[in-house]
Amino acid sequence: MVFRLVLGCGTVGRQTITQLPECDGRLLVVTEDDQTVETLRDESVPAREGDPTAPELLASVDRPELVFVAGDRTDRNRLALERARERFPSATIVAYLGGKPTPEDRAAFDELADRVIDPERALGDAVLEATTSAPADAAIRLRQHLQGIDGRLAVVMHDNPDPDAIASAVALAGIAESVGVRADPCYFGQISHQENRAMVNVLGLDLRNLEPGESLEEYDAFALVDHSRPGVNDQLPEDLHIDVVIDHHPPRGPVPSDYVDLREHAGATSTVLTEYLDQFGSAFDRATATALLYGIRVDTDEFTREVSSADFEAAATLWPHVDTDVLRRIEQPSLEGETLDTIARAIKSREQRGSVAAASAGRIGDRDALPQAADRLLTMEGVDTSLVFGFIDEMVFVSARSRASDVDLGEALRDAFDRIGSAGGHADMAGAQLEIGILGAADDDQVDSIVSVVEEVITDRFFEAIETQPGTPVGSYTQTSEVLFELEDGE
């Protein structure tokens, strides 16, 4: 429950205060005008007569999450702001600049307040939005959680991260640094897609690549972005304590974290992080803004897939800070021959049942070629749902796409593969990872036959899951596949 403290009650403050009681949480207005106090109380607004700049009065007030400095006079508001910041260092402060600010006043307000309401640019409605919106409340809570971290924070992306995960991790690490918490954007696996590598290299993003089994003792806290559970699509211990989760995917089970922000309506986690940066009043770093916009564009397929008004608003917020020349360089990297080979093998090996196509790309060196192959299958005549998978060492990586209104790929892949691996995603875009331990124990002359059986199992389970939606998966392939995927050397 958010506690809002209003210091002073001038014209702009009065316009806002009458609507504040409708918001969740506690409210207290402090003003020297006894008539205003009486009027507010008649309107059921909690109010106290007193000097908003008096240190002894501020000392008597419970610590608020948000302070609104709302008098008319610039000099009084500045003094109230200075003393409120000293008394409540961790609070979010929104300060009204007043009518006659000097350059020195503006500098002081910019330094001490999280948000400054300038009378030349904003009226009561803008103040109301800045102090009572759901994004403002979320930013307040995130700030509190971050400021409670004592030590270094690891902001962990999902394995082999995509642009949305990379940009979100960089943005959250930057937010943490802005409140005095040292933070590293971290990931396991590889950044192998040529566009993803271009994004990291051209923008000069500072990421840490963690090795499997690497000690994490240097980190005192952990945050997850673009996924929500440790040990699921990352290589963290499943029982690791998580401090912050920010994601836009629907969760599959409980989310174990102190602070959780899941925005299933958002098309990208980058959209959510853009909102946080805006609410924190942070200056938009050019590289981070460019990465966030690219993350939104990729995850929403250029604002055509699972897009919301929030995604457009975030893009509009980011656009003035984006390096458009760099963005074009990221979006147009050279296409590697290996990627073209993967796409060609998928097209050649495809099996189609009705409007659904599935294909094995065989042994691959770049798992990020799979979604490109799935997208390419989707462009073929008569196909509205596609799945492509490939083998790297003892793992099978799966990527699926759909434009059919009656298909939920996230649920279909979970139904098909959750018992033999990890799977999930959205209705029109999903993926899975399956471990095949038996390949490591097989002789060279056995591998081809085993791979052939695995390909058949994956293809059949996928078609079966699509055909049985909605409902539970049919178990005709369960016994064969579970034995195959769980078999270990010597068993």
UniProtKB/TrEMBL annotation:
InterPro entries (alphabetical): DDH_dom, DHH_sf, DHHA1_dom, NAD(P)-bd_dom_sf, Oligoribo/pAp-PDE_c-di-AMP_PDE, RCK_N
Listed GO biological process terms: potassium ion transport
Domain RCK N-terminal intervals: 5-95
Positions of the DHHA1 domain: 356-459
Entry-linked Pfam families: DHH, DHHA1, TrkA_N
Residue ranges of every copy of the DDH domain listed in the record: 154-296
Superkingdom of the source species: Archaea
GO molecular function, one term: nucleic acid binding
Protein name (record): Exopolyphosphatase-like enzyme
Organism classification: Archaea, Methanobacteriati, Methanobacteriota, Stenosarchaea group, Halobacteria
